[in-house]
Design goal:
The chain is an all-alpha fold. 77% of the residues lie in helices and 0% in strands. The structure holds fe (ii) ion (2 copies). The site of one fe (ii) ion (FE2) has 5 residues, from helix 2 and helix 4.
Length: 154
C-alpha cells in the first residue's frame, strides 16, 4: 500500500518551512507504516517522541518568525500549535499507560490535522511574512532567515 501524507500541494513556498513540514509528514508516514506492520509499542513510542520533539522545534521556529514580523494572528496560530502538540502528547500518554493501542485512524487524524494547519494557517502566515520581507529588502530577509533557521537542525 502506498502512502504519501506529503504532497507538492502541501508547499507554502518558503523552502526552510517546507523542508520542516516535509520532515514532519515523513515521520507520520513512518508512524503509519509501523502501526500497519504491528511494530512493538517501544518502536511506536520512540517514533511518537521523535515526532513530538520535531513538531515542537518546528512550532518554535514559526513562532520566532511570527514574532520577528509582528504577525497579527500569532496568538490563534500558537493555539493551533498547542492543539497539535497536545494531540501527539495524548497519543504518547495513551500508549505509555497501556490504555489502548495506537490505530491507523489516530495517525490519519493527526496527519489530517497537520495538513489542515499547513494549508490554512501556515500558508496565511508565510504569505504575510513574505509580504513584509518585500518591504524589508533582501539583506534584512537574509539576516533574519539566518538568525531563525541557522539554529534549527534539519
Ligand atoms: Fe504553524
Ligand atoms: Fe508549520
Amino acid at each position: 500500500m502506498s502512502l504519501a501524507y506529503w504532497q507538492d500541494d502541501c508547499k507554502v513556498n518558503h523552502p526552510p518551512i517546507d523542508q520542516e513540514h516535509h520532515h514532519l509528514l515523513k515521520l507520520l508516514e513512518d508512524l503509519y507504516r509501523s502501526v500497519l506492520w504491528d511494530h512493538s509499542e517501544d518502536i511506536l513510542q520512540a517514533l511518537l517522541d521523535t515526532l513530538f520533539r520535531a513538531t515542537l522545534e518546528h512550532c518554535e521556529t514559526e513562532e520566532s518568525l511570527m514574532e520577528v514580523f509582528g504577525y497579527p494572528d500569532q496568538i490563534s496560530h500558537m493555539e493551533h500549535h498547542e492543539e497539535i502538540l497536545a494531540l501527539i502528547l495524548n497519543y504518547c500518554l495513551t500508549l505509555e499507560q497501556g490504555l489502548r493501542p495506537l490505530s491507523l485512524d489516530d495517525v490519519h487524524d493527526l496527519a489530517a490535522c497537520l495538513n489542515r494547519h499547513i494549508s490554512t494557517d501556515d500558508l496565511k502566515m508565510v504569505q504575510f511574512v513574505q509580504h513584509q520581507q518585500k518591504h524589508d529588502g533582501a539583506m534584512m530577509t537574509q539576516a533574519i532567515n539566518h538568525r531563525i533557521f541557522a539554529t534549527i537542525s534539519p
